[in-house]
Automatic annotation (TrEMBL):
PANTHER family: ALCOHOL DEHYDROGENASE (PTHR42901:SF1)
Organism: Thioclava nitratireducens
InterPro entries the UniProt entry points to: NAD(P)-bd_dom_sf, Sc_DH/Rdtase_CS, SDR_fam
Protein name: NAD(P)-dependent oxidoreductase
PROSITE patterns given in the database record: ADH_SHORT
Amino acid sequence: MTKTALITGATAGFGDAIARRFAHEGWKVIVTGRRQERLDALVEALGGPEVAHPLCFDIRDEAATRAALESLPEGFAQIDALINNAGLARGTAPAQDCDLDDWRAMIDTNITGLAVMTRLTLDRLIARRGLIVNLASIAANWPYPGGNVYGGTKAFVQQFSLGLRSDLSGTGVRVTSIEPGLSESEFTLVRTGGDKAAYDKLYAGADPLQPEDIAESIYWVAALPAHVNINSIEIMPVSQSWAPFQIHRE
Ligand code: 8X3
């Protein structure tokens, strides 16, 4: 039986690559995002409305999320996998210099949007003994200067994933937290406020992860036998590793 994956934030980066990977493997995909033209182009690229269904809404808006899910046509109403990819980082300034609107945007999207989407699809996922994949980050595991609220939101995603596993015991639903490190995508342009020079500098000579690398990991998780649950995967490019702790000296 053809399976269906719902991928949030599919208009760029990881989400776009995940949608393409699942569709390539014969899944139907529901692709969500705020940019209708990009969703329409993606649906076209994936093979049209038999294969892909677009839902255009802002994941920070609970009523819009509910309405979008209720609008799903019969062929896309069952959900076998929820890929909670939508999320963002805004800025790398120290906490004492941060803009509260940036913090709210991250909390509303990475925490509230993800939690609402999960809650509103849980009945469908339980009915299909489905899969939830949540996009966390290495920022959930390792603090770094300027990570502040972004890292906090991703720590929520990671712990929420573990809690879901506990609550879903006996339902057959699998839950995985994916924790990528340095990855090349539009994410960084959003984080830097569109600063292409900063984008280029970050990746120069670093051979970062690509969205296809993340899509590969997530598809692997989904394709495993139904009795296997990958709790978490932390992924870095080979070029990225740890540095000594900072010590401030007077
Ligand atoms: C983003 C990856 O390395 O900037 O989740 O924290 S990193």
